[in-house]
Amino acid sequence: MDGTPQPRPTSTDETGEFPFAPNDYVLHLLAAIVMFRDAALDVELKPLGLTIGRFRTLSILIRCGPSTMTELSAFSAVDRTTLTRVADHLVAEGLVERKGDAEDRRRVLLELTEAGRDRHAKAYAVVADCNRRIGAGVPDGALRSVTRMLSAIIRNQTDNEATRASLLAFGRQ
Amino acid sequence: MNAKLPPEPYVPDPKKEFPLTPVDFLMHLTSSMALMRESALDQQLKPLGLSISRYRVLGVLVRFGPCRMTDVANLTAMDRTSLTRVADHLVGGGLVERTTSSKDRRQVFLEITQAGRDAHRAALAVVLGYNAKILDGISETAQRQAARTLKVLAANLAPNPSARDGIILYATAASGAANDGA
Description:
The complex is a heterodimer. The model of chain A is unreliable at about 1-10 (pLDDT under 50). In chain A, helix 2 (about 50-65) crosses helix 5. A two-stranded antiparallel ribbon of chain A has the order 1-2. By secondary structure, chain A is mainly alpha-helical. Chain A has helices at about 20-45, 50-65, 70-75, 80-90, 115-135, 140-155, 160-170, and strands at about 95-100, 110. Chain A has seven helices and two strands. By secondary structure, chain B is mainly alpha-helical. Chain B has helices at about 20-45, 50-65, 70-75, 80-90, 115-135, 140-155, 160-170; strands at about 95-100, 110, 170, 175. The longest helix of chain B has 24 residues, at about 20-45. Chains A and B meet through helix 1, helix 2, helix 5, helix 6 and helix 7 of A and helix 1, helix 2, helix 5, helix 6 and helix 7 of B.
């Protein structure tokens, strides 16, 4: 598609290789991959008392260190309402603590507890195993080119520099 | 970070191109992309009374005609609980009707109404516009190459063959490959 998108009854691929135009098909497949993966991981993480959303929040705290809710929301691309619910749950479970910043007592930081770190390590083993199954049979070069495309998509998606930089570094910039 | 803490479990990329191994990083980016896309589209579709999930269901009904819930689930990768909630909402809003087959009264179909078609057409422009924006600068060749890889990833993940074909071929067992662009 070039220029302004023309409303069409549906999206088609002129070459007939894909059921939609390549750009729409790429996003259709990515959306499905996320839904399949989230559904599978929610089941696999349940014995650990986690969901994929809770695991993601623990991951960001591992990678970024103690963070405010605003930072956590930017670093994880999760909206504040959802994030508050997840954080409350993790605090109630003793996996995360709310602490005042030593330099600015009004600033509240979320921080992993030892139990949170331990739970994350167990969950990571489950998630990494799932990721290996997803990539089975795909050559390293093909995975790398799709990963580069995803990085370009994320750059196009957000003007928020903190979100962009931390998502692409999977850590604090 | 405190040196006494145990090391984080993440495995770095052996080729140092990415912060994690390619598949771990790809999944991190994919989830992040999807979260941002869904929240942006939910917001943009709100004035039309739609969300991205409601749009997906309407899209299936426009393309395939009346469908059973199972078919809609397979074509959207949605779980049945979410799908039921979305379908109830669309029926309540007059965009979709529940109909029964003349052959088998127990078989319930979802069928789009004229109001549903109009809503879908307006939403399609929003979604295609967003898709074009976020894929800006990525060549069609790169998109095609990526789609071929993503088909393998989706097939590796699909919970069953019907879900796999629903997503990859965008087809149901009854419809065959839906390449008619209807």
